[in-house]
């Protein structure tokens, strides 16, 4: 996301989320117990670098999110543009009970 946004317009990351993340993590970010972890506040979302890496490289193996163990596979989303990745991370970081600062396109580009 760049610059200011008109009031009432959906965040640009919302459309990216709906297209690429919703099927697994659900529209309200609650996930599916034992299969897809929730996007409510947790250490992954809190850590910008971890979150960027997760988008670029995906994630597999056992992880614990809010006390529940997951051992599955999240596909890499490196086919998205730096802007789309920044937008969707920023959207997640301000949704589902999270209240964290946005991630910029430049930060994604630097990690890629
Ligand atoms: C095919 C299903 C699938 C899709 C699509 C998917 N994820 Fe995931 N995601 C997972 C799974 C499964 C894990 C846990 C991986 C593991 O067990 O190691 C995960 C883990 C995560 C985590 C870290 C743990 C947590 O719950 O906070 C975040 C953040 C996340 N995904 C965000 C996203 C975002 C944003 C998108 C869209 C760009 C996305 N995911 C798309 C399945 C998916």
UniProtKB/TrEMBL annotation:
Q: Does the keyword Transmembrane helix apply?
A: no
Family matches, as Gene3D superfamilies:
Cytochrome c-like domain
Q: Where is the Cytochrome c domain positioned along the sequence?
A: 8-96
Q: Name one Pfam family in it.
A: Cytochrom_C
Q: Does the keyword Zinc-finger apply?
A: no
Q: Transmembrane ranges?
A: none
Q: Which domain of life is it from?
A: Bacteria
Gene Ontology MF: a single term? heme binding
> Which protein, by its recorded name, is this?
Cytochrome C
